[in-house]
Amino acid sequence: MASSSSSVVDMDPDVARRLFEEGATLVLLGVPEGTELGIDYKSWQVGPRFRGVKMIPPGLHFLHFSSANPPHCGGEIGPKTGLFLVLKPREILLANWDPKEEDLDFSASRNEEEVDRVRAKLQDLDPFLGPYPYEVMRKWVSLTDRLTQEVADGLQPLSGRVCAFCDVIPELQLKHTKDRAEQNLPRNDTECQSMKEGLERLPRMKQREGTELRFSHIPKQTYPEGATPAQITQCSMDTSYALETLLDKHYKTQPLNVLGELQFAFVCFLIGNAYEAFEHWKSLLALMCRSEEAMRSHKDLYLGLITVLYHQLGEIPPDYFVDIVSQNNFLTSTLQDFFQFASGPGMDGMLRKRAEKFKVHLTKKFRWDFEADLEDCAPVVVELPEGVTMD
Q: What is the fold of 4-140?
């Protein structure tokens, strides 16, 4: 991990003093050298002297790590694991590395005597604690300002861990050969005549209970029961009914918290490498952007959505747009619908103005043309006049 002195020197003295006095401390003991470990928007490779992170601003944070093979075994970095933490001023959170599980065990933090013992020796530990990366704090806050502890706790898996790869087990525990025979599963490789047959006869897998991200359910049926054909068509073009159903079920008293879910999914994907979170982010964003009537009744929600997207799209690496985000023109077509609805009759003037300003920003930054007919699968590019450059 980077030495503490260089980061603290770069920090504003007043901020450094306040974080030193009020900041929380993560004491992480036994983390193997070479482990990739990070907090929020920055990560490091753990060195031999690493014992944790100090001067952490109170609030919500995302701790993430990837175990690594020793150098003599290739030094490959494993899949990422992350967890959301809410830290209080001057709090000390203590964890020990579990080599068997390749995970951090926080059970020691429940032992007050052990925590007090660490607090008493904190001065001795200080040279081995890296400072919180203050330079990414503003960026982290902009990505999570709508994400409350309550929303994060309700969305992250019961296991408390966000994993880049799903932990899967067979749907049926087939311990004996006769059990496999009853399920028509192959006893050896020679029984299958083709790869297709082999794949079809593999045991069905399911995600291990307690490891699933607990996102809000996005209704597959976008129209009410007993709807007429005309209503079904209307609800397919304007998904407000489905969005109102989701808000009523999950965010009845605080509909703006759905923006926290959008931020949670984005962080889990961008920093935690959880692809299922990206799929949910896409689905939730599409639902919100294609809900014309909801834009009229939830002005504050959509003003917040523009701000959330402004910061999120500013952080996605350029190659993501080519490889993933722009796949099948998802973002450009979804946002084109949003901008079209936002400029429609009866929309709030401030929302209309903010949407137009956001559209100009995206057009200039990414060269997306939201006026074009999006039929191609490749992103649509605007040719800027000579002498005009992107931000």
A: Substrate Binding Domain Of DNAk; Chain A, domain 1 (2.60.34)
pLDDT at residue number 325: 61
HEC-encoded secondary structure of the chain: CCCHHHHHHHCCHHHHHHHHHHCEEEEEECCCCCCEEEECCEEEECCCCCCEEEEECCEEEEEEEECECCHHHCCCECCCEEEEEEECCCCEEEEEEECCCCEEECHHHHCHHHHHHHHHCHHHHHHHEEECCHHHHHHHHHHHCCCCHHHHHHHCCCCCCEECCCCEEECCCCCCHHHHHHCCCCCCHHHCCCHHHHHHCCCCEEECCCCCCCCCCCCCCCCCCCCCHHHHHHHHHCCHHHHHHHHHHHCCCCHHHHHHHHHHHHHHHHCCCCHHHHHHHHHHHHHHHCCHHHHHHCHHHHHHHHHHHHHHHHHCCHHHHHHHHCHHHHHHHHHHHHHHHHCCCCCCHHHHHHHHHHHHHHHHHHCCCCCCCCCCCCCCCCCCCCCCCCC
pTM recorded for the entire structure: 0.83
145-161+215-391 is classed CATH 1.10.357:
no
Closest CA relative to residue 379, chosen from 336, 338, 328 = 328
Q: What residues does each domain of the chain span?
A: 4-140, 145-161+215-391, 168-207
Reported for 379-387, long-range contacts at CB under 8 A and 24+ positions apart, including other chains, are 379/321, 379/322, 379/326, 379/329, 379/332, 380/329, 380/332
Give the pLDDT confidence of 90-138 residue by residue, as tens digits.
999 999 999 999 999 999 999 999 999 999 999 999 999 999 999 999 9
Task: Give the model's confidence band at 380: pLDDT under 50 very low, under 70 low, under 90 confident, else very high.
Answer: very low
Segment 171-200, tens digit of pLDDT: 666 555 555 555 555 555 555 666 666 556
Per-residue pLDDT tens digits for 84-103: 999 999 999 999 999 999 99
pLDDT at 125: 94
Pairing of strands 129-131, 52-56: parallel
